[in-house]
Amino acid sequence: GAVVSQHPSWVICKSGTSVKIECRSLDFQATTMFWYRQFPKQSLMLMATSNEGSKATYEQGVEKDKFLINHASLTLSTLTVTSAHPEDSSFYICSARRSGSSSGELFFGEGSRLTVL
Amino acid sequence: GENVEQHPSTLSVQEGDSAVIKCTYSDSASNYFPWYKQELGKRPQLIIDIRSNVGEKKDQRIAVTLNKTAKHFSLHITETQPEDSAVYFCAASSGGSTLTFGKGTMLLVSP
Fold first, then answer.
1. Closest partner residue to B44 among A49, A104, A108, by Cβ?
2. Which residues contact B72 (CB under 8 A, 6 or more apart)?
3. Are the beta carbons of A105 and B44 separated by less than 8 Å?
4. Do A43 and B44 touch (CB under 8 A)?
5. pLDDT at A85
6. CB pair distance less than 8 Å for A44 and B101
7. How many Å from the N-terminal Cα to the C-terminal Cα in chain B?
8. Cβ atoms within 10 Å, residue A27
9. What digits encode the pLDDT tens for the residues B74-110?
């Protein structure tokens, strides 16, 4: 099966600091990865689409300078929350689509719970 | 863009009963409809999916039906068990584009 690993699974940081979350496809290449944010008892909200070797595409209302995305290889995308504030506390989940696949199937990471004090 | 509506938001059933969750979508070009199960604090897990070239798909106690004309699809769980309790999300996409998720249904199966 296709495995996506996300790290760290949880992180606590002070307000004003930056936090980096990694999303890795372990046994397949992923040209495209997606970053979601999920608040308690709510659905997954797409933040951005990460494309290997190019700039990420951000959804409306998502600040690209605050949520920096880098997809430097076919197996790794990173999300950096810059100058984090308590309102950034949330569950962040990545997903990946196998390169060359037109099926639409996504494989999700375990999620990263961010708490900003 | 695509808009996916999901109902109900919560569903309580007794163990052994059936559960049905319904979704509608707006983009007639959508051709891929997965269903995910998410337990608290964990990643969404794909439980079943259907493509627009079929009307129904079944996998043991889980089935999904698709009505392209009406643009709605449903998840059916028979003989529910307490371990089926979770949040279920429907989603839709077209041509390998991004998935649009419904708002989720919290299913509670009581023993």
1. A108
2. B22, B23, B24, B25, B66
3. no
4. no
5. 96
6. yes
7. 41
8. 11
9. 999 999 999 999 999 999 988 667 889 999 999 999 9
Question: Are the beta carbons of B99 and A109 separated by less than 8 Å?
Answer: no
| Partners of B6 in the β-ladder | B23
pLDDT tens digit sequence for B27-58: 999 999 999 999 988 999 999 999 988 899 99
Provide DSSP, A25-89: ESSS--SEEEEEEE-TTS--EEEEEEETTS--EEPTT--TTTEEEEEEETTEEEEEE-S--GGG-
Distances (CA, A) of B87 to A54, A92, B91: 34, 17, 13
Considering just the CA atoms, what is the radius of gyration of chain A in Å?
13
State residue A73 phi and psi, 5-degree precision: -140, 170
A93 touches chain B (CB under 8 A): yes
